[in-house]
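Write out this protein's structure.
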Amino acid sequence: MTEPNSKARNTTAFYIQSVIAFGVSLFGTLAGIYYLPLDPWPKGFLVMSMLFLVTSSFTLAKVVRDQQEEAMLKEARMQRLLSEHEPFSHAG
């Protein structure tokens, strides 16, 4: 019988690197849009599109994570069911 793996944890350094990378990329994109030689309306459209892309990325990541966790739970339930069911234990 195999037991489901414990949930892997990220290191603090990886978490900090991810947060910094997100902040730098968000700031860089906003600064780039700000300094574009465009009128305010096209800049506003680009900012709205970028923010929608960011929120959609978070939503997609959450949905993928939830599906993976659900698959792991189903696998753990099946392993438990198979380990509890022994077809030859009641035979004579």
